[in-house]
Amino acid sequence: MIWYIILPILILILIQYSNSKKINTKKRNILMNKIKELVKSIQKQHKQLVAEWDAGGDSTPCWFSIIDKFGKEENREEYSKKYEEEFDSLRNYIISELNLPNAGEYYNKGKGVIGLEDDKVVIRYSAKEFTNENEDSMIEFSLEDRFGLLDLQYKANITFSLGLGEKIEMNYDILEDDEEEEEKDNFMIELRILEGDEIFVSQEMFTYYKTQFEEVGKRFETELGLEIDGKTLQEILISYNERDEVGKGFLKIEKYYEWHKLHENEEVVLID
Amino acid sequence: MKPQKFYTQGIEFENINTVLKIYKKQQKTLAEVLTIFTQESNKALIVNVYDSIEPITIKEAMSLANSEQRAAALKHFPIEEIIVSLKAKLVDKQTIKKSQVRWDENLKPYKYDFEDTYELYAISANALNVQPRWGGGQDYKIYFVKCKCASTDRQYYLYVPEFMGLKQDAIEAIAWTMRFDNQPLSKQQYLNLMYSET
To answer: Which residue, of A118, A175, A235, B197, has the greatest Cβ tally within 10 A?
Structure first.
């Protein structure tokens, strides 16, 4: 007897469910077509739809820009508003197809151009997936101070630092050629003046302190490239910033390990 | 040649005289000041001028364009002196009688009666050398409420927005500085809390 009541309700629920599914599928199809139309029209005008992301560390930002044939960005405010729905949906496709991270210390940073090929929306992109880890240690160190820089600690925070190795940076911008980077000095004397006038560091002073740090650096250089738990020791930062009350100095050794995977000029279908 | 920069309390100044005036206000001697400067030309200048340098005044401190510089210079004045110098106007003063149960050194409870006084002040924005962010004309006022922390006996001067200052009610102003569920308290809510504390 009870089935006479339950069965029609169940049938009604099923019809409702199937209708809402149909509506959702219809909505999705409409949106997919709108995205395809948008990409098609951008391509037709010889412009480019570019996506960039910097995902990981508890957020997944992904943003879009439309670049004209002269390489200039169009009015972002205008098109972001106009194509808000399409961009929101495209963002979800990128996050899902490229498996972009959100929470945790795992990152994916990249950039790509979105295009239409054989009625499929595809992205041609470059990206770096990576995860970092670091460990610190302190060792006693007596810095020779012929120029008396450390005697000025009462009026300035003075930090000496030497960097060994470097993190792998890649050019995510697949629209531009690799630019040659300016060579930076891996040794630095940072002076944060608290009281009085500026402290002048001559080239002679700089070289004098740098030589001492390079001597220390030699002890660690061989460790670069070592692999621990699948991660590579990519960078070592050696710094010294003050003597304690009894005149003892300490070096802080920071070791940065990194695991990474590079994607260069790869192509993925976002919408079939 | 790049112009020199001068520092006190980690804040950068363009003018050595301002820094020397602050040192004078701190009552630093010539010998002390000379140990802070490293460049011979600066040392020579200081030896010549330091005796004739006058300590920085509140008016001079207030006229510094940079807010970090103003804060570094004003740090050396008692707040009461700043308030008098800025011609702060007392807008409202109210006292609440309170009593608390406290414990003596033998851990015996006793009743402690005291009075809590709140004072609402207004200062002209011009005197503070600040511009109202959303306009507001020449007669724009900055309001703050003075109160005393019952446990530490320290005086506090808390900023309240103009719309609250215009109500000319010191209790209403102090209530606004407190939040419950991210909402400022009303005067009545604040008084109710005070009576329950009592």
So the answer is: A235
